[in-house]
Amino acid sequence: MAEGIGRRRYQQIARALVEDIVSGRHAAGDRLPPERELAIRFEVSRATVREAMLALELTGHVEIRIGSGVFVLPPNPQGEKASLFQPPQIDGPWDVLDARRLIEGETAARAAARADASVLDAIGAAIEDMARAVNDTARFDKADTAFHALIAEAAGSALYETYVEQLWQMRQGPMWDRWYARTRSVANRRQSIAEHRVIHRALCRRLPTTARTAMESHIDTLTERFLALRLDADEDESTPA
């Protein structure tokens, strides 16, 4: 199963693992093979395997125990046919973050060249709203969304604005919630605020290349948090993701 063929990659892996579970290859209580091994088996990145694990947890097939592994849950009392398995029909965190890096990096560069003073002030105000809400997840997320939406608006392209809005809408849903529940912390929110201030400074100084790099770096941080989740007890941190 080469990466990038057919339906979303993580869905292919999730379906194959459900087939393993239903066939008895992996029984209730068993720990699934390490993600490194699964990545080799399916010829995909470990990030894609990680998305598949989130999908299987969401559908009630496995339990993720961070640092211990991924364990098979007891089957549905009514039984299950692998052919009827329906993985979540959404884009996974890895693909969405990859698209955000590309598109939001460009919107930041364009905003640095085009934003007027009032929009720059509004972007700065969104950061201050985030700082005041560092202990309130809902308020923090609202201000964070406003920050990125304002930059997209400042880029001066309705199409870019639509792209960013759609990408942020893809962050909604139970699969994302499960990932965020494992990575959210006050420390991470404070880091995010600091990274937003770097982006804002580049915008105010009219430095498109610096703004693009700062935005890409910010999204790289989010990606690294996803990759840093250690699902396996014997995880070798030196192994490429």
From TrEMBL:
Domain (HTH gntR-type) ranges: 7-75
UniProt cross-references to CDD domains, sorted A to Z: WHTH_GntR
Keywords of the record: DNA-binding, Transcription, Transcription regulation
Superkingdom of the organism of origin: Bacteria
SMART domains the UniProt entry points to: FCD, HTH_GNTR
Pfam families, A to Z: FCD, GntR
One Gene Ontology MF term: DNA-binding transcription factor activity
PANTHER family given in the database record: TRANSCRIPTIONAL REGULATOR, GNTR FAMILY, UXU OPERON TRANSCRIPTIONAL REGULATOR
Protein name, as recorded: Transcriptional regulator, GntR family
Originating organism: Aureimonas jatrophae
Organism phylogeny: Bacteria, Pseudomonadati, Pseudomonadota, Alphaproteobacteria, Hyphomicrobiales
